[in-house]
Structure formats: C-alpha cells, structure tokens
Amino acid sequence: METRPAFDEIMGLSGDKPPRPELAALGRWLENTSGDELRRRQESAEAAFRQLGITFAVYGETEAAERIIPFDIVPRVFLHEEWTRLSEGLVQRVEAINAFLDDIYGEQRILSEGVLPADLVLTNPQFRPEIAGMRPPHGVWAHICGIDLVRTGPDDFFVLEDNARTPSGVSYMLENREAMLRLCPELFRSYRVEAVDSYPDRLLETMKSVAPRGTGTPVCVVLTPGHYNSAYYEHSFLADSMGVELVEAADLEVDDDIVWMRTVAGRVRVDVIYRRVDDDYLDPLVFRPDSMLGVPGLIAAYAAGNVAIINAPGNGIADDKAIYSYMPEIVRFYSGGEVKLPNVETWRCREPEALRYTLDHLGELVVKLVDGSGGYGMLVGPTASRDEVERFRAALIAEPHRYIAQPTLALSTVPTLTDTGVSPRHVDFRPFVLTGANGVQVVPGGLTRVALKEGSLVVNSSQGGGTKDSFVLVPDGPVQNMGPSGMTQTMGGMRQEQN
C-alpha cells in the first residue's frame, strides 16, 4: 500500500486546509459550482466528443469502436515556475534521446565505453540492425516525443517512461482545451493560460524543417494504418488540422528511391511522412514481408536521403523500459551535466540481485514488461490478487530479462468529478516535445491522464482511465478571451483565431 499520503495538486498534502494560494481561484470555483452543473458541463463535452467521433479502440473488445475516453471537467494546473523547470528537463532528455539513437545506429560510442551493456541494445527486439549506418535528414531521430511524468510532491517530478515511436494523445489535449474554453470560460478569466492550439502549426513547421530537399515547399503527409486503428481519429484530426493529406500504404509508391503519392491529378513527390505505422509493418521488403500496411521500398528511399520519416525507424529502442533504466547515465553521457528530470527508481530483473529483491518484495512493487505499453503486462503489487502475484512470480523466474520493477509511488492527485461528487484521483502527465532542424520546443500543455477508479494508480485509457485539460499558467500578459464567433487565444503576443 502507499507509504505516505498523496500530494493533492490543489489542496496540498492535507485535504482539510485551504487550497494552495496560487490555486485559490480554482478552489473557489469548485466550491461555488454545484455538482449537477459540473456534471452537465462534463456530459456536454463528452457528447461533443462522441459526435465528432473522438473514439479509441481496445483490441479484442467488440464494442471498442464506439468508446470515448472519459473527460473530466476539473482542470489540472501547472504554475509558471513549475513548467519552466519541467521544460528544461524535457529538453535535456529529448536531446539525449536523439543523441543516443544517432550513436547506437552509428559509432556506438556509448557501448564501446561500457556505459550500457552491448547485449541490452544489440539483442533487443526494438533495435533495428536493418537501418544501422543510416542517418535521417538533418540528423533528427525523435521528432515527436511524449515523456510520461508523475508527481509525488510540490517539487518532485519523475519520468515514468519515454515514448519516442508514435506517441499518441495530442488530439485529446487539443479537444479538451476546446471543450474547457466553451464550457468553463470563467476559469480563463481567473487564470492566464498558455494556448495549445498552435500545436498543428508547430508540428507542420517541424516536419517541413527536416525535409531532405532544400528548395520549394515540402510535401508532407500523415501515413495511417487505416480506420480500424485505435488512434485513427487522431491521425485524421492532425492531417486535417495541418492541411496535409492523410494517406494509407496504397496511396504511396516508391520509384527509383523516390516516394510518390497517387492523386487524381497524377503523381506528387512526397518529402516528409509522419508515420503512425509501427516499424514491423513499415516496409515489407525490409521488415515483415506479410505487411499490407507498409510501402515497399520506403526504407530504400529513406536510406537514399530522399524522404524524412517521422519518427525515424528504429526509435523503439528508446522506448524500451530496460533502456529507460539507464537514462540517467545516457543523459550524463551525452549532455555532460546532471539529470534535471530523474527516473523512478528501477530494478532491472535481468540482474540477479535485482531479481532477488523483486521476488522478495513482489507484493509491494509495480512490475512491467520492458516492451509493454497501455497498462498491459503490468503488475501493481499492492492491489493485485494472490494468484496474479504468483503468476508474475513464475513469469519473472522464467524470463527475468523481460521485466523491470519499480516502487509503488504515492502519485499526486487532482480533484475529479465522480459519481459521488468531487474527489481526489491519481494522475500522470504526457507533455509533447517537438524536435526539428531548428531546435527543440516543448508544447505548453499536455495530456493529463486520470485514474477514475478510487485508489487506482493505472491511468491508461485502455484500463478505464480518463483525461483532463492541463493549464500552464503564464506570469503576466493577456488572458485568453472568448469571442462571439469562436475562440481567440493569445500566446507570445500573437493572436490566433479558431473558426
């Protein structure tokens, strides 16, 4: 069980005292807005999401196509000073991830100098020897990163995992903000909040910046596996928001190491592909030969330097949770400085001493597959049944290299609307970091995921979690205003209209 009370991000360490001074206005809003009114607004937002088709699928569930991720009307708030510290740590970490990927598919200095065990990388299923020696345009590997964070105290933030393949959730960040502006405008009169609606423009700018050809306007596309994919709404949403084509494999062909898009007006050369297709299925000539989702010859075009692929093939090695356990060493190796955003303490079960500790404390720990995601393949010891613990014990003994273990943290809570009223629920956070030829930028917001079940620490949507809007406060400047014909947001002195 949790060893100490959870830190509530509005109320502090004790729920029986006034809200943290900077968040007093949010505390008053919660006190003065009835539960029925909060529920009405929340249901209105979810109805709009359903009408827009903002759904996700849980594979193996027949009803999943119509499911929306539950939305919570109570926002999460980051103070300006908190966000500044987080941003510095995120930039440092993503720069290290890019340097690490560039190194292991190139000179492999980090292996030759013994910072990481070579077998941990070279025998890892996510390491792609097929692309060793290749270098992406402008040397950028991880163009879009989602770095999952947890908080345990006023100043205590930890990285839970890195997502450098195809991180999802940004459409929920944008739609959650749209809903809050429409349904809770009074909060934006109380707080100056950084705008997030520029994300599609930032993403398109990032894509264009890494185009391999230096002349003309780069042609960018979003490559989707198709409408059966769990994140298809996000694929189509982002393509539409950026004003680029959403394509499937059949829309593309490779001729003489150049990627072309088939259109009714003829073939158009493609410079940048934001792919939402996993490596295994990306090119049947290089990876899985039975893939119907990939484009034959795509990797050859990439190797020839004729197309940029976002994120770069081979990035999955940076998502691996065993590699994650070495991220402090990786950051120090490439940055030459101390880590600004620490990891959660982690035991690598491939190491005999760590395995013994994990087996001896299995009921107290969180155990994860090194290549797992979505809350699957995970044991939360304090809430697991005896049978679940024993099944994991057998799995650990049989294949210890497939697992890591971490302490059960007292994750921070945020007030959340439940069936019985507003109550604290545990949250994590996924900020989005973009890296292009012109540098790294942290989007001033992100996806807050909330564990809607009382006491639960599992926030994943596939496991019953929901989402919240994430406010990043600015110290001064104009407040976001509501206009009669839509929403007007301000950021950096530049007005941005949404129609």
TrEMBL record:
Endpoints of the signal sequence: none
InterPro entries: ATP-dep_Glu-Cys_Ligase-2, CP_ATPgrasp_2, UCP005522
Transmembrane segments: none
Domain of life of the source: Bacteria
All copies of domain Circularly permuted ATP-grasp type, residue ranges: 75-451
A Pfam cross-reference name: CP_ATPgrasp_2
Polar residues bias: start-end ranges: 482-499
Protein name: Putative circularly permuted ATP-grasp superfamily protein
Organism for this UniProt entry: Sphingomonas aerophila
Lineage of the species this protein comes from: Bacteria, Pseudomonadati, Pseudomonadota, Alphaproteobacteria, Sphingomonadales
